[in-house]
Design a protein that fits this description.
The complex is a heterodimer of chains A (about 400) and B (about 150). With about 400 residues, chain A is α/β, with parallel strands linked by helices. Chain A has 13 helices and 11 strands. Chain B has 2 domains: about 70 residues, no CATH class; about 80 residues, OB fold (Dihydrolipoamide Acetyltransferase, E2P) (Beta Barrel). Chain B contains 2 helices and 8 strands; from the N terminus they run H-H-E-E-E-E-E-E-E-E. The chains are: A alpha/beta (about 400), B mainly beta (about 150).
Amino acid sequence: MATPMASIVSGGITKFGAREGVYTRELFAEAAKEAFSNCPNLDPRRDIQALFVGMMSESYEHQAHVAPLLVDWIGLLPIPAVRTEGACASSAVALRNAICAIRSGMYDVVMVGGVEKMTHFSTTGVTEVLAMASDFPFEQWHGISFPGIFGMMAVDHMHRYGTTEEQMAKVAVKNHEHGLLNPKAHFQKRITVDDVLSSSCVAWPLKLYDCCPRSDGASCLILTAPKIAKKFTDTPVNIVGSGQAQDTLGLFERETFSSMKVTKLASQQAYKMAGVGPGEIDVAELHDCFTIAEIMAYEDLGFCEPGKGGKLIEDGVTQIGGKIPTNTSGGLKAKGHPVGATGTAQAYEIYLQLTNQAGKRQVSGAEVGLTENVGGSASTGVVHIYQRGD
Amino acid sequence: MTASATASQEQKAFFIRDKNGEILPLVENFYMFCTERKIMGVKCKRCGAIICPPRTLCPKCLADEFDWTELKGRGKLLTYTIIHFPPTQFQALAPYAVGIVKLEQGPQLSGMIKNVKLEDLRIGMDIQVDFETTLPKEWPRWPRYFFKPAN
């Protein structure tokens, strides 16, 4: 395994879901408070030198310039704060930038997080805001919704590989099973394949239960230079691989729609950096914004051959107890998807897994974890690989 | 004045040009050509790539000089979906089909598929590009192209 680039020494996450009357600033402070409380050796005002925070949209709260707002509301003025925007991958981009900042030697201790407040908007309103992450002149202008983009990916995948609606439904069923074990998840509700198949159509073949919900929430991590991690905790988690790639904003300009090139490229970079392959991953958090996206991620990350993602979910390989449990948190589908919070929420789940703090959803003996966070129609892809540091 | 005369007058194209009067390779100008019922791309003067929608830098070789070239507006359907839950301004049309079409000369476009029974949609079907006759009221008022099955 390669030299660690940065170490996670603590983290925090709010309850995801409909958090009525609690807005971005309070959500982020709630996650930060948990990260501070979980790390008694950390003196936030003395130790934390910068904040990197991901958030997708100003539209929800009519609030831009959130970096100073959020660093103020977690009590850390006047340290530098940066907001990153990469649609649904906003906080994975923040994480990668935080790692770069630590690697540069500029900082030893930083906070990285993400937040989004969405549920006060109607489903139609959220649909409109999310669609802003697609190409305006050639997608939005022609009535192509975000589920529509993933619907077109799903149709191509079904046509090319014979992937079925039942296989996609099984991703939702599996992630809801996992969500039952996560008290912070948006949904603690068991669903069946029939529930998914009979739910109302959003963008055929994607039904309501193939889609992640709109959620409110925040998440954060405390990141340090590896050499000082043990000052803060006996059980740090090291980040040993990081990859990021971009693709065209519009889906229509790509050679293929049944695979996410950014996930392939980002994972290749991360695997190479970490010195591990897909077979050595013990637990992974994947970007299941729509069920087809998790199936494509299996293939693009090398968990199975192209076209075999449907079979992988059918065979139970990715459920807790299987060879590569994915989305033990419940994933975007059941944990919820407060867009900006998702990237660091995925990293926090892996931190919990690799430090044996994942409770009823603990993957026993997990040593190496992976996160895959995708923005837009996979125009941004970020993959990180983590290893126990104790 | 007839209604159609009003519409055609309203849709008169105002191209954005350089100081020599050449039509610049802009998205705005792509849509101005749509008012003339044309799908236009640009051909890179250096590497010959045909790019549609047009861009100001060639994505293949980074050159910035192009000639406009008209595309035939025929192609094949690469993928599609049927949108049941649309963005607000399209709600009256739901459910409707959208898809990605590979034009005969190579470039790909996405758009709405009309004049088709939704159950008849097939990957690989022959598609013809057509144009809306009315101009949208909302910004940026670009005339929309759409796809329909080719005869």
